[in-house]
Design brief:
Elements lengths: L1 H11 L6 E3 L3 H11 L5 E3 L4 H5 L6 H6 L6 H10 L15 E5 L5 E6 L6 E2 L1 H7 L10 E4 L3 E7 L3 E2 L3 E11 L4 E3 L10 E4 L5 E7 L4 E5 L4 E6 L3 E9 L3 H7 L4 E10 L1 E2 L8 E11 L12
Parallel strand pairs: 1-2, 5-9, 8-18
Antiparallel strand pairs: 3-4, 6-7, 7-9, 9-15, 10-14, 10-17, 11-16, 12-15, 13-14, 16-18
């Protein structure tokens, strides 16, 4: 359904969408009709294509076998399949996204660690360098930096991995310190703790080396426009779904912390408050008809 909400925008970028499942044509047809899916849903009976792609979920077979109640298999079940297993699950894939070029060659792929966690379309496009799409950005202008920040998605759900992007433009003659600048305050995006929100490692771009002649030192800095990308995951636990149930929006807060310098002096450290408000939608768990 998240894919469906982005189909038109993806088409405008020249990107086609299709989903493949081990479900029968009847199951996929009923799902399409119920939820208004307009892109192709491909039925893979027997999971032959899923197996050829190397993404067949073998944990199901282990859980249904003689070792199904061992601690290791039960742990893997909860992470990669579901709390309880049944025969209808045989043939499911590890969920993920493949990006193909026009000749059918796989150019990128995106998979998560658990079956309930998924990259959003916007997050994937952001990581591919395909831009922010139609999400509106917020601008912050300061004495040392100009900042534009935006989320990868306007709407999120439990289990979604999405991106918070901060585009930073240092003003003329200004630099801020990059990772590896020992003894200096490195620019950082600090996220306020929030229940059911998991903050993943911040992605930094390549930096430049600045030579400070008075101290005869070379340090990594940013003195040209650069982008910080912070990935965030909304947990898909029952407690998280219950906490978000009925909510129309989710606000994520943080701050951009840095110390700006020029060729002569360093200014006082600055903490710029940032926030992103996203609409929230529930997860869809049910299937329109049972798998044959």
């Amino acid at each position: 359904m998240e894919l469906q909400s982005r189909v038109d925008a993806l088409k405008r970028q020249g990107i086609g969408v299709a989903a493949i499942s081990y479900d029968s044509r009847e199951v996929l047809g009923a799902f399409s009709a119920k939820y208004g899916i307009t892109f192709p849903l491909l039925s893979d009976p027997g999971s032959r294509t899923i197996e050829r792609y190397g993404i067949l979920n073998t944990v199901v077979a282990e859980a249904l076998g003689p070792q199904g109640h061992t601690p290791d298999v039960e742990r893997d079940m909860k992470q990669y399949v579901a709390p309880r297993v049944n025969r209808h699950m045989e043939g499911i894939p590890f969920p993920g996204t493949f990006i193909l070029d026009r000749s059918g060659r796989v150019t990128a792929r995106f998979f998560e660690d658990t079956y309930v966690e998924r990259d959003t379309v916007g997050n994937i496009l952001m990581r591919l360098g395909a831009g922010r799409g139609t999400v509106q950005g917020a601008r912050v202008t300061g004495p040392h930096l100009n900042v534009v920040t935006y989320p990868s998605d306007a709407i999120v759900a439990p289990g979604n991995r999405f991106s918070l992007t901060v585009n930073v433009t240092p003003k003329a003659g200004i630099h801020v310190y990059a990772p590896g600048a020992a003894g200096y305050r490195v620019i950082a995006l600090r996220m306020a703790p929030q229940p059911f929100l998991r903050v993943l490692p911040l992605t930094y771009p390549a930096s430049q080396i600045y030579f400070f002649k008075p101290l005869n030192e070379r340090v990594p800095v940013y003195d040209k426009p650069f982008t910080l990308v912070q990935d965030v995951m909304i947990e898909a636990t029952p407690a998280a779904e219950q906490a978000l149930s009925g909510r129309r929006s989710l606000t994520v807060a943080g701050s951009l912390d840095y110390q700006a310098c020029n060729d002569r002096l360093c200014f006082n450290p600055v903490s710029v408050p940032l926030s992103w408000t996203l609409a929230v939608r529930p997860l869809v768990h049910e299937r329109p008809i049972e798998h044959d």
